[in-house]
Amino acid sequence: MRIAHRQGADLFVSIHADAAPNAEAQGASVYVLSKDGATSTMARWLAKSENSANRSAPARDSALYSPDPTLSKVLVDMSMDATIAASLDLGKIMVDNLGQVTRIHQQVVDQAGFAVLKSLDIPSILVETGFMSNRDDCIRLMSEHHQDELAGALQQGVTDYFRRHPLLQTFQDKS
Fold this sequence. Notes:
The protein is of the alpha/beta class. Helices cover 43% and strands 13% of the residues.
């Protein structure tokens, strides 16, 4: 997330291959940040697993900083709510696009406290492309053809999102 901030990213997509405690789980999933905890048992388990592997803290140097802690909290909460709403929209678009090329684990965008998604101002999603713990998913995920299909669906999802939410052009004085 810090790299995304340094590079001025307008969107953040974290792409993974999933694993589950049982071999029956299959299909792609999309997750966004939750301020209120995981929305499912799978989301809770996955967030715990992912967060233990990625201990990066959210960027603390934000334009929302204020010496007044109450004002800072209000600004952070408002920004986080808007970012989560935008992330949910992006997530729904991604589920639809991924559903055209692969099985979907669940049709809804799930939420959990993934450390990698904790951005105040960048819409962010975590995409699980399938379950390595499921034999059929694993075989598909190792296929170059399927990888290309997934990449195309993800690219189309980003394009669809920006068509729906065009970036504002900003002009800076170059002098």
